[in-house]
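To the team - beta-D-glucopyranuronic acid complex, inputs and output below.
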Amino acid sequence: MSLSDENEQSRLRRRSFLIGSGAVVATSMFSAAPAHASPSSAFPGDYDGSDLWLRYEPVADPGLLARYRAALGAIVVENAGRTKVHRHTANLGMAPGSAEHLVESTLEAARDELVRGLGGLLGRPVPVRGGFPDRAVVVGTPDSSPLVRRLVPARDLAPLGPDGYLVRSLSRGGHRSIVIAGNTDLAALYGTFAFLRRLQAQHPLAGLDLSSVPRINHRYLNYWETERLYAGNNATGTGGLDGENGAIFDFTATGASAALNLPVILDRYLVAARAMASVGINGITINNVNANSFYLTPAAIEQEAALADALRPYGIRLAVSINYAAPTDARFAPDTLTREELDPYSAKFRDWWTRRARMLQAAIPDFMGFTVKANSEGQPGPQDLGYDHGDGANGMAAAVAPLGMRIFWRTFVYNADVDADRLKRAYLEFGPIDDEPQPDGTIGRFAGNVFLQTKNGPLDYQAREPANPLFGRMEHTNQAIELQVTQEYTGQNTMLCYLGPLWEEVLKSDTYATGADGRLLAKRLVGHVVDGTAQGHPDSAIVGVANFGNAGNLTGHHFAQANLYAFGRLAWDWTLDARGIAEDWVRLTWSNRDFAVRTIVAMMMGSREALVSYQTPLGVAHQFRSSDHYGPNPAERLARDDWSPVYYNKADSAGLGYDRSPTGSGFTAQYFPVLAARYGDIETVPENLLMWFHHVPWDRKLRSGRIFWDELVYRYQTGVHYVSWMRRAWDALEPHVDARRFAEVKAKLAAHEADAGAWRDTCVRYWQEFNGRAVPTNGPLAIAIVVGGRTIGGFDAGAPSFTVPVAAGASPKITKVVPADPAARCEVLSQARGVPGQAVVRVTSHSFFGPILKDYVFELVPG
Ligand code: BDP
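Output:
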């Protein structure tokens, strides 16, 4: 079969499972399509990544395929259409030519996912049946399905709560089945996705007995439209093609795309909905936190309602971000307030918000509430009228409480009047409100339906930060942790940076929080604080700033899909480990072949630490150029101090880093005593956070035995060497990965390597302006070579090539390579044929975060 035939087959195969209402089209295509093509073409060569991890390619292993086929003979979803979800939009419809389809109930979504998933994985349709046929996959709840009631004891379902599910293989009297059950339709859908994931990752079915309950109630995305969007359809920016702005949802597209604006539903909305549901995400705030009040206008609300209708079967609820001063916006005339009327205690203010919230609820009955960025980065807020964040948040909370809605009030504030150290400001503003005794004898002023939404670190989504001290210190207020999925500071759509390890690190970091008696809490990791088990918070939430756009693969970089996936999995269960999640994702997205899985997981697992190393090693924070937060500019000094890299690096002839110890800014005191002591002392602070807390002398000895300057330079180099290794590792995957995605990632890795090198060079050169020191040349990949009997060494491992003089008549051959580190491996890839000529030596080794590689290019010249 030619490649194009194969593509066609695959395209048809995909489409045949997109048929609505559970009808399975019996198709002869399957007999023609091989269950498994040759290794290099297991996926169609032009596959663009548009299915995210919901790929249901035929199982390649013939034995496993046979076992799956033998075990999975029918799909049974009783009363699938009975409990229809609310629909506001009378004639909700897909854009012409769509491949996805709308469903009316959550159980229909589950059933159709199984039809599509099992059909794809098994390479043949699996029929939807009634009754209880042998080898059935049964999905439902005790309410929806008498069969589920019969098969699953009520006591097994009781502990699962509203969202938890169980998946079991059963065998009774020779009658085999698999049951996927939960207490709600949504739980059954979650179980369905978990089951399909098992098959995609090729786990055995025998003895299947899974159950899972999410640890956090509200697992949300925040969507910022085109701000920090790296997945728009215009390669050079955030969009603009065909009248679309690059965002995933079209509200105001023009030109060719005007007819596709909401309420029209596009395929990508449903792919996104299915993907979100597959990992248990259950809400999305659809617009930028720097909010445009357009989203509160009647016309926009109608559009939002249509979007909510389409997402509702998947359990995804909507919220919007608001501007605190929206009531003054002329677009709402005559229903407007004056600036003076924005008093959070006034009936006028509260009633205004109640009216808006009611309009939203009339169209979107399950509307969640508002996300608020107030008195931050120029956004208006209660402080404009002399009130504090507690007054503002509670005013809004009171307005929406009767409607059952919540306020997600962000703590990303850094008013320069509060303290000279930006990192101290948020706690100084929020902490006292949380500690405040109330007239009724309770402590803490924030209302029960307020969540404080707090970034993982005290600064701003850097690739490594200490945990935000607010976690654990806000005992009396519900906490939502906010993680950035879109890669603003972590390589955008160019760098491969898997963020699972970053989030795992923060969620599992110990706050050393103490209770009222001063003793350490038993459960006190950041994850425990967020899920409420540390301090008994009644409600729990986690928020990811999403990276969806309208690009074919929805996330820009193919590997950025992994970050969305990992966010969802960790939102469900923050105790999972990032490596396991990466492995699942690779199996679902790229390949189940051992070599591919091993290689890609390895690439992902070190990628974040590598990025930290070549961008901001040893805790030097925020060295990004201000224009786009992608490249370095350590010398930049902006009008606002706390936006300037120089404010964070504090480079001088003595050393580098921001002293936040008790003798510096004193920020360390915001942590609980164990951490305050640990971070406050340069002897005990973890080295990867060194410059977050200390101004480090250039000559200070570090744990490696090297002085700070040398270690710093080697960290920059090592980070880049990891990227070099990733490029070579990826090249070896060519036979295992479909052609288009292989080429696209390959191109990104080349740019990644160059840009990582620019980070290293820019930063190292800038630090040299202060310390006047040479680049050390004895790092992990340092070598000496012997040419013509002469030993030559002292190469800067960051340099792209080296000139080596060869005496007249001497041989240009490299006769020996001596690595500084005996564990390093050296290989002469090519020798010079004469002089002038070029030779290449490859040196490989291991850093603490993974393999590293450097190709030394030697230009041999007469000399
Ligand atoms: C910063 C982003 C900016 C956001 C801000 C926020 O650069 O675009 O508006 O965070 O979270 O990192 O409000």
